[in-house]
Every structure is written in C-alpha cells, then in structure tokens.
Amino acid sequence: MSEKMKSYIEEAEKALLHTYNRYQIVLEKGDGVYLYDIDGKKYLDFVAGIAVFALGYNNKEYNDTLKAQIDKVLHTSNYYYNVPAIEAAKKLKEASKMDRVFFTNSGAEAVEGALKAARKYAFLKDGKTDHEIIAMNHSFHGRTFGALSVTGNPHYREAFEPMIGNIKFADLNDFESVLSQVNDKTCAIILETVQGEGGIYPATEEFLTKVRKLCDERDILLILDEIQCGMGRTGYMFAWQKYGVKPDIMTTAKALGCGVPVGAFLLTEKVGANSLVAGDHGTTYGGNPFACAAVGKVLDLFKQDNIIENVNEVAPYLEERLDELVGRYDFITCRRGMGLMQGLVFDRPVADVINKALENGLILINAGPNIIRFVPPLVITKENVDDMIGILDSCLRSL
Length: 399
Fold this sequence. Notes:
Layout: H1 3-15, E1 27-31, E2 34-37, E3 42-45, H2 48-51, H3 60-70, H4 83-96, E4 100-104, H5 107-126, E5 132-136, H6 145-149, H7 154-157, E6 167-170, H8 175-179, E7 186-192, E8 194-195, E9 201-202, H9 205-218, E10 221-225, E11 249-252, E12 263-267, H10 269-272, H11 289-304, H12 307-328, E13 332-338, E14 341-346, H13 351-359, E15 362-363, E16 365-366, E17 371-374, H14 382-397
Parallel strand pairs: 3-15, 5-6, 5-7, 7-10, 10-11
Antiparallel strand pairs: 1-2, 2-3, 4-12, 8-9, 11-12, 13-14, 14-17, 16-17
C-alpha cells in the first residue's frame, strides 16, 4: 500500500462514522467492468457496487445524459412536474407492467413507502390500525426502521428495539409457515423474489404461486422486493416475471439508477387508487430531474444494448464455471442463484478468500459469513468470467 493510500484511509477512519469494516483500498475510477485504485492498480469487478452498476463504469451515453441534465436543472421539488420524472415513470411502468410509480432516494425508502401503502390500503377498508405484515426469515430490506422491522435477521434488529409493531416472520419457500401466520389482521406479505444478503435464495415458482393465490383470496397485498434481484439481473427485467406472479406493490433501486441514488415503489392501479393520497407520503429529493434522467437513460440503454439478452447468454456460462469449482473443492458445498446473481456456499468463512482475491485484482463480496456472492455488471462477457474464475481458482488452491 502506498503512503498516499495509507494516508487517505487513516483520514477516513478519523472522519467517517465506523459502520463499515472497509476493504483497505481507495478506489478512484472505473471503466467497463474494471475499477482502479488511486495507485493505478486494476481490479476486475464482480460486485458492481452491490448490484448497482449494471451498465458497467464510464458508459459514455449515460454520462453524457447526466452532464446535459446538470446544465438544465438538478432539482425542482415535487410541487412541480418535471419532464425526466414523467418520462422515467412511463418507461418504468412499461418495463414492470405496474401502474403507479413513486420515486425515492434509496431502496430502504422504497420499502418504507411500500409498507405505508399497504397499511393505508388496509386502513381504508376497515378503519383499523392493528394490521399485521408477514415477512421472511433471513430477508434483508434495509436499515431504516420500517425496512429493518421486516428484515428477518434478529441480529440486525436487536439493538434498535422496539421496531414497528405487528410484524410476523415465516420461512421462504415454506407455504405452510406463511399460512400459519395469516389471520384476519394480515394486510401484506413482503419478500425478496431472490433473497440477497440472506444467502442468495430464489423463491420457488410453487411458493410464489401459492402466496399469490392466498393474497387474492383474502385481499392481502403481495409486496415483492426487487431492489437487488431486479433490473435484469436474473435474466428478466424483474425476477417475478419469470414466474408470472405479479405483485401488488414492488420495490426497486440499485441498478435503477446505475450509480445515481434512486429507488422507487410501484403499485397496481387497485392499490394506487386505494392507499396513499396527498399528504400521506413525500420526499424532497425523490423523483428530481437529475435522478430521473439517469433512470430514463438506464431503461433506454437496457433496450438499446440488449442487456437482458447478454445476461441470458453469459449467466449459464457463469453457472457452469462456478459448478466446476464446486466439483473441484470439497469445502464448497453448492452453488445457487438466478442469472447474474449467484452464490458459492462454503463450509467455512470466506473472508480470507475475498481478501486474497482483492490482492490479486478481483473484487468479490460475501452474502453472510460463508457465501461468496457474484453480482457483476450485466455487461460482462464469457472472457470476463474466465478471468474471474482463473483468479478465484488460484486463491482457492492456496486454502
């Protein structure tokens, strides 16, 4: 490590609140599927800012769109209309087949809005405020109080109790466990279509279908969190589209802006017309022209550059190469995931492997202590996969 990098890290540790155990590098720029630190070292990136940079780094058309918007107007507030928000909402509706859009600044805020919409929908039916929401064990929905309340990891919640009330937990892909939590007070069921932080667990088609049917029968709202697994990562624009199980409310963020902080929650017309009204919810920055210019361009580039087609071409090859590692090393127990959202499960902690990979110019991240997560830019090639496997394999051999 150079003195320059060491000095920046020391300054960061003095100035920034220590809520992350950061890797000991200072990144400066990116290009394509590569990142560079301030010493000029090149890294193959299989994290993409935690599933954010779907288009890769330094995409000229994306950059030019944001530069042009900066010269027009960055912010106006939601008391006025702006063209980028209108166009972005139209394109997002087309991609998701949902009906109403509320733009937020982050995924956690999108979850907050989704929970409020679900409770308001139930309140308007019976005037009561004792409704319950069912969430999944091992889920992750964010760090704000509402999102944390439906995050199925007690360790994240315990120091911040009490959470918002009337939350119950069931098990993903276990319909009976969901059914056992349902009662007349249940107003919503929230789950990630593919659990991310909880270990890369996709929901099964059978489970989602049964939950959807249950919600239809009892007028319970199904909220699908597509913040990490959405925006093309699974080979569909949104993962639920693989199963044809449409949610009543959906959350999205991360790759929605490809680097600009933006999220959204989307509702069907039925929920949109019977939940939040003027004064119920708001945001100062959400839906501003700059963020929505990014959203609109991202959705344009997904079509223009055939991003989802590339995912469906490269993902099976990534699975094949990861499966080779499962067969080669007895300490890797399995691979699981969908599309370019994959995990290798180890019988031991993976921190040493990730650190070794970083030393060798490969950026990886975990999903729990014993799982390496692979969420690369969606523009990666099979050659990039080969390069990644080559570096990772050499790190695994050192174990």
